[in-house]
Amino acid sequence: MTASGDMHFLQRAIELARRGRGTTAPNPCVGAVLVRDGAVVAEGWHTRYGALHAEREALADARRKGVDPTQCTMYVTLEPCNHHGKTPPCTEAILEAGVPAVVVGMRDPNPVAAGGLEHLQEQGVAVRVVAEDSEEGLACRALLADFVHFQQTDRAFLILKLAATLDGKIAGVSGKPEKVTGPKAHDHVQALRRMAGAVIVGGQTLRADNPRLTRRGNDEEADTQPYAVVVTSKLPSADKDIFLLRERAAQTIFWTGTEQAQSETAAQLEKLGCRVWGLDSGEHGLDLSQGLARLRAELDVFYALCEGGGTLAMGCVSQGMADELHYFVAPRVLGNTNGVASFSGATAQNIADTKNFRIVATEYFDPDLLLVMHPKREVAP
Q: Is pTM, for the whole model, over 0.70?
């Protein structure tokens, strides 16, 4: 199969894998297709944590369709697992089905699950892993950046979302909340909120917008909503008329300095049902990694969505916490240098000092353009 053919079939597997993103964590989202005579004849993906893996789903699809796996090549975004977890090894299913060849987009970074390719080869299966720096290899690494993150760190995977004009402004001179992008972009943000276990904003956003930080649509029950996290050095009074305090206190978490977390104001907020977590301070503000680690360890939050302003956004980037950036570009120009910038608060003087990202996907949400990016360290170490 040619490299262009690899990309075509692995791209389809990637599309399938994305359907499970957010529901499979801490497992990877994986897609698999069976190909015969240059066409996809069966496919599957890992739908949720604890469910069948993508390879077994694809083989089940083949059985339903009367497709003979012994005449097919399997394309899968991640190395088939070779261990017993919540489900039996996928290598076992591939061998039982008699699949003669497997093309893999990425080796498994989990040492417990690795070794599947060697086992398949020992049993006579033709195995090939695409090059890491190839188009298809980079695409699979981008898809699985969250899984690699879960393997290598103890904190939630942070998605930073921003919407800006062509000149990089997220609000006008007054700073008051205004819509920058259109309704289709807003729908995408809601999809991100449905995936996230926590939505994070800064104290300025809390004071200016009085946000709800909820998912919209048919998912309004309180127990299905994400945690609301507010990063602030100035805690609000418990008697303030703030939606999060009135309606979502039990789901609201304040990240603040260690001294503020011991204050009477913090105690009053905790009486309402809020959590107040004291974080250490450093060069770039509160240590966000501590909060993200507690979200995962104490509340099983694997994905957090940051919708803060320019200062918080820059803090995420400066601390290396922006694991994925969703940056909406609206075809609009403010042109006033006093508008609120999408990133602010850094002291860098030269372009050589920039924090660099790699674009891993683009999507058009008429009239806006979405750029999805990962830090370069995530996809091209």
A: yes
